[in-house]
Amino acid sequence: MPTDLEQLVELQRVDLELARLNAQLAAIPKTIARIDAQLAAARKRVEEARAAIKAGETAKRQYEQEIQSLNEKILKFRGQSSSIKNNEQYKALLSEIAHAEGEIATFEEKILELMLNADSLQSQLHAAEAALKAESAEIELQKAAAEKAGEADRTAAAQAREQSQALRKGVDETLLATYDRILKSRGYAVAEVLEHRCTACQVMLRPQVLSNIRAAQEVVHCDSCGRMLYYLPEHNVKTSAANATGIAHQAEREWMFVPSMGSNGAFAVFINHKGNATMKAYDAVTGEAIARRVEKNAICRKIFAEEIRDARNLFVDESNLEDKYKEQLPPEVLDDLRHQLPKA
Ligand SMILES: [Zn+2]
Question: How far away, in angstroms, is 8 Cα from ligand 1 center?
Answer without folding.
Answer: 16
